């Protein structure tokens, strides 16, 4: 059964579980940070995603991601980076006191550290947001119930030069496929929000447990 993660009790449980990691990781240098926006869409708990613009440079254009980006020298910390980038990308202002904590960092193929920041953003209509068209093609939400259904979960095997390297999760049957680091962060989030309903079975290369 999905716990009431949007309740005050659910929020306090998550803040408590993330407290030590947040205190340890908040001031550490990182290449980038993303916001994991936990919202309520028509009363249903959901996570908010973006579809990166197909006009962007690099291999991640057109991919599903959480709002976020590179840390700027002027940013106070990774939380500030995630909140600033979210406002710039999708026009969503999230107060700092709505941040619940920092999830386990992940690493891209260049071994750059990407820090996920979980925040409760309250009731939200994704269609009311005004994303920056230079960075984002679309904003959409996936209900936690959708993400927790086994038929919407899968895994992708990554190979290099014909040899198997590692396996990562993928979430299917929504408006767009959620894969790569965004799927890993989604999996970490589900493990926190619904530990009894979601139990990941994979370990990822280069990702130390905190």
Protein described:
With 210 residues, this protein is of the alpha+beta class. Helices cover 24% and strands 31% of the residues. It has four helices and ten strands. It has helices at 8-25, 78-90, 144-148, 180-193, and strands at 32-41, 44-52, 64-65, 68-70, 99-102, 106-107, 113-123, 136-143, 153-160, 163-171. Strands 1, 2, 3, 4, 5, 6, 7 and 8 form an eight-stranded mixed β-sheet that branches. Strands 9-10 form a two-stranded antiparallel ribbon. β9 (153-160) and β10 (163-171) form a beta hairpin. Residues 205-210 have low confidence and may be disordered.
Question: What's the short story on this structure?
Answer:
The chain is α+β, with helices and mostly antiparallel strands and 210 residues long. The chain has helices at 8-25, 78-90, 144-148, 180-193, and strands at residues 32-41, 44-52, 64-65, 68-70, 99-102, 106-107, 113-123, 136-143, 153-160, 163-171.
Write the layout of secondary structure elements.
Elements: H1 8-25, E1 32-41, E2 44-52, E3 64-65, E4 68-70, H2 78-90, E5 99-102, E6 106-107, E7 113-123, E8 136-143, H3 144-148, E9 153-160, E10 163-171, H4 180-193
Query: What shape does the CA trace take?
Result: globular
Strand content: 25-35%
Structural class of the secondary elements?
alpha+beta
The SSE string, one letter per element, is: HEEEEHEEEEHEEH
Spatial separation of the terminal alpha carbons: 26 Å
Low-confidence stretches: 205-210
The number of helices is 4
Cα radius of gyration in angstroms = 16 Å
Please give the largest β-sheet: 8 strands, mixed
Could you report the average pLDDT, rounded to the nearest whole number?
89
């Amino acid at each position: 059964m999905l716990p009431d993660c949007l309740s005050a009790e659910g929020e306090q449980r998550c803040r408590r579980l993330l407290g030590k990691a947040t205190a340890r990781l908040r001031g550490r240098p990182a290449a980038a940070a993303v916001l994991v926006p936990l919202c309520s869409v028509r009363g249903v708990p959901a996570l908010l995603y973006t579809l990166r613009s197909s006009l962007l440079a690099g291999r991640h254009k057109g991919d599903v991601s959480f709002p976020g980006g590179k840390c700027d020298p002027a940013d106070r910390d990774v939380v500030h980076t995630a909140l600033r980038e979210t406002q710039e990308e999708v026009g969503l202002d999230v107060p700092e006191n709505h941040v619940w904590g920092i999830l386990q960092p992940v690493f891209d193929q260049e071994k750059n550290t990407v820090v996920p920041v979980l925040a409760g953003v309250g009731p939200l209509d994704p269609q009311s947001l005004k994303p920056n068209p230079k960075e984002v093609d679309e904003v959409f939400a996936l209900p936690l119930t959708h993400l927790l259904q086994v038929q919407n979960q899968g895994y992708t095997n990554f190979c290099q030069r014909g040899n198997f390297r590692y396996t990562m999760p993928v979430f299917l049957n929504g408006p767009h496929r959620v894969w790569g680091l965004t799927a890993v962060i989604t999996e970490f989030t589900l493990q926190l929000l619904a530990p009894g309903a979601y139990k990941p079975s994979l370990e990822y290369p280069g990702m130390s447990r905190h």
